[in-house]
């Protein structure tokens, strides 16, 4: 059973709003989510498998107040009443969605930060492209028939994969050699340039700042992903030598590196973010909270978007004490704290219904 927003708001109506607990799965960006929630005065709850992760003991400021220990993540569906009693609001992140799956997540009858409708548009690459192209975003060309590959392309599987399994093909033969045809995939032309992952925050309830048709848009930080083994492999030789040795580049994300953009690009960066938000308002009622545009900056100073993550991304973990951009909004403002601040502000303004689904 998938829950409607009205049903979720009915649950929220039963809560003691002075005792909200922020909960998420202990992975991905949970350290900053718990740290930010505590700084804004909320209780915290970590969801984990088999035993609380020991590494939290090393980070006391980010250790949740309590843990919910499960054998499988889908057991969370059986704990809904227990979590309602704790006035839990779920903060989803990339691993949360990947571990539970979009179908199971839709069946979770707990108030959740953000708009659940975005999952349908984000997890399906064809719908994602419809959304972004509809917003006037310049995306890489898509090749429908792999037999038409006539130059470098990136082959991506649907859903949050952390880059796992993605590969570059330069010909139909390359494609056949590496494709997993049991998965749904998209073929995009490869764009040369510098990758920038742009971390935005959209608030439908804030009225001051970079205003949109409704609410405001913030730029909190940027990063570049460190990928194994693609970022180091070419130390071993030229692409031809690697191919002859049977060494294939892979793109599994292992970490993140900080970035800032030249200031003259900020108008375009905000324009891209605002277009995406405005189109989301038209298509499914709006994307709420943090999101990331995954882009390539070309040597012509164009910005081409190849994907969107409509939630907090792990690249924001670089900036738990703020960033060169977030510090100009407020000192020590992480994306995790910004989420908690939005929940706190919405509660004070009696507008939780505008940020919860």
UniProtKB/TrEMBL annotation:
Ubl conjugation among keywords: no
Protein origin, superkingdom: Archaea
Gene Ontology biological-process annotations: 'de novo' IMP biosynthetic process
ATP-grasp domain span: 102-334
Positions bound to 5-amino-1-(5-phospho-beta-D-ribosyl)imidazole-4-carboxamide: 28, 95, 256
GO terms, molecular function: ATP binding; ligase activity, forming carbon-nitrogen bonds; magnesium ion binding
Positions of ATP binding: 227
Pathway membership, UniProt: Purine metabolism; IMP biosynthesis via de novo pathway; 5-formamido-1-(5-phospho-D-ribosyl)imidazole-4-carboxamide from 5-amino-1-(5-phospho-D-ribosyl)imidazole-4-carboxamide (formate route): step 1/1
Keywords: ATP-binding, Ligase, Magnesium, Manganese, Metal-binding, Nucleotide-binding, Purine biosynthesis
Chemical reaction(s) catalysed: 5-amino-1-(5-phospho-beta-D-ribosyl)imidazole-4-carboxamide + formate + ATP = 5-formamido-1-(5-phospho-D-ribosyl)imidazole-4-carboxamide + ADP + phosphate
Database matches in InterPro entries: ATP-grasp, ATP_grasp_subdomain_1, IMP_biosynth_PurP, IMP_biosynth_PurP_C, IMP_biosynth_PurP_N, PreATP-grasp_dom_sf
Entry EC number(s): 6.3.4.23
Class of enzymatic activity (EC top level): ligase
Cofactor(s) required for function per UniProt: Mn(2+); Mg(2+)
Keyword set includes Ligase: yes
Family: Belongs to the phosphohexose mutase family.
Listed NCBIfam families: PRK13278.1-6
Role played: Catalyzes the ATP- and formate-dependent formylation of 5-aminoimidazole-4-carboxamide-1-beta-d-ribofuranosyl 5'-monophosphate (AICAR) to 5-formaminoimidazole-4-carboxamide-1-beta-d-ribofuranosyl 5'-monophosphate (FAICAR) in the absence of folates.
The name this protein goes by in its record: 5-formaminoimidazole-4-carboxamide-1-(beta)-D-ribofuranosyl 5'-monophosphate synthetase
